[in-house]
TrEMBL record:
SUPFAM superfamilies: S-adenosyl-L-methionine-dependent methyltransferases (SSF53335)
GO CC term (a single one): nucleolus
Top EC category: transferase
Subcellular localization(s) per the UniProt record: Nucleus, Nucleolus
EC numbers: 2.1.1.-
Keywords: Methyltransferase, Nucleus, S-adenosyl-L-methionine, Transferase
Residue sites binding S-adenosyl-L-methionine per the record: 163, 184
InterPro entries referenced in this protein's UniProt entry, alphabetically: Bmt2/SAMTOR (IPR021867), SAM-dependent_MTases_sf (IPR029063)
This protein's name: 25S rRNA adenine-N(1) methyltransferase
Organism expressing this protein natively: Komagataella phaffii (strain GS115 / ATCC 20864)
Gene behind this protein: BMT2
Function: S-adenosyl-L-methionine-dependent methyltransferase that specifically methylates the N(1) position of an adenine present in helix 65 in 25S rRNA.
Length: 323
């Protein structure tokens, strides 16, 4: 059934203009912001013991719907997009329903203010449009070719793409892979499975493992430092013991402007998990890595706790904890 536009559903969104085309950099920024908003919304809904389908009814039942509505309308009517928060996961520990309802209203208000899921769909289409420079996998495919990693294999490799935005990116269209499994939390295409990687069933055998995993601009949206470490560990359980690789992409500030994470620190973490860095590229705002995984026996079991590595004003708190 065709989804109605936001204009037909909410009067607040009448002034919202959803462009048919967005520049790749703007698209990626919008996608990342929507991912954060939707992740934060899910955290709040979990705390309220509700779901996307029935949370408005829940708010009415507990008497906080007006708080939600007022907070939502305040964002829509009075706050400019440029002044909206551009970072931070929400902390929903030990908070009251009134606070949660207000927070939920602000999140929904910003979603509407930014054009709703219509805008997200447009951004998702443009964000990995290779013709417009939006496909981060171009570095991966270039490196695979340069290193001739799969050129001599008898059986074509397979790949898992975590956080896939388009089934037409270079990973899918290169013909290097026999199969590409694409997953994303907010799938906008039938060829992309709506799935949380952390909830994906573990492989039962080697046939369910992969020769390559792409994790592009995903790790930075994992809620906690410990969960990020768990995600990297989990990646190894989906890789073949031999001839397997990881393509990792992070916003550059995660390693250049963080108190708790540097490029050298990332290298130590990845090495402890059995990864060998083959390639690294630092673009203007993004960092790209290609790793070879040397198998489960190469893991050292070393722990990495939260520790300040660099001090300074205006730095972010991105961190990866492996314990």
């Amino acid at each position: 059934m065709k989804r109605k536009s936001l204009k037909a559903i909410t009067k607040e969104s009448k002034a919202v203009h959803v462009p048919s085309s967005i520049k790749p950099q703007s698209a990626r920024q919008l996608i990342r912001r929507f991912h954060l908003l939707l992740k934060n919304k899910n955290l709040v809904l979990q705390k309220l013991q509700s779901s996307e389908a029935d949370y408005l009814t829940k708010l009415k039942q507990i008497g906080t719907y007006q708080v939600y509505s007022d907070s939502k309308n305040k964002v829509i009517e009075n706050i400019k997009i440029n002044s909206l928060a551009t970072e931070n996961s929400v902390n929903v520990e030990s908070v009251q329903p009134f606070f949660l309802s207000g927070l939920l209203g602000r999140i929904d208000g910003e979603i509407v203010k930014r054009g709703g899921l219509d805008a997200y769909q447009v951004a998702s289409t443009q964000g990995q449009n290779g013709k417009r420079g939006g496909d981060s996998s171009k570095y991966l495919m270039r490196w695979l070719s340069e290193l001739e990693l799969f050129s001599k294999v008898k059986i074509k490799p397979n790949a898992l793409e975590i956080g896939c935005l388009s089934s037409q990116n270079l990973i899918s269209t290169s013909k290097v892979f026999e199969e590409v499994v694409r997953i994303d939390l907010q799938s906008q295409e039938p060829k992309i499975l709506k799935q949380d990687f952390m909830q994906r069933p573990l492989p039962k055998n080697d046939n369910e493992k992969f020769n390559l995993i792409s994790c592009s601009l995903v790790l930075n949206f994992v809620p906690t430092a410990s969960d990020r470490g768990q995600m990297l560990k989990r990646v190894t359980t989906f890789l073949q013991e031999t001839d397997s690789y990881l393509f990792l992409v992070l916003p550059l500030p995660c390693i250049t402007n963080s108190r708790y994470c540097t490029q050298e620190h990332i290298a130590k973490i990845m090495s402890s998990l059995g990864f060998q860095e083959l390639k690294f590229h630092q673009a203007q705002k993004i960092a790209y890595w290609l790793y070879k995984w040397n198998g489960s026996k190469s893991s050292t079991g070393e722990t990495f706790l939260k520790k300040e590595l660099v001090s300074g004003k205006g730095m972010n708190n991105f961190c990866i904890v492996v314990d």
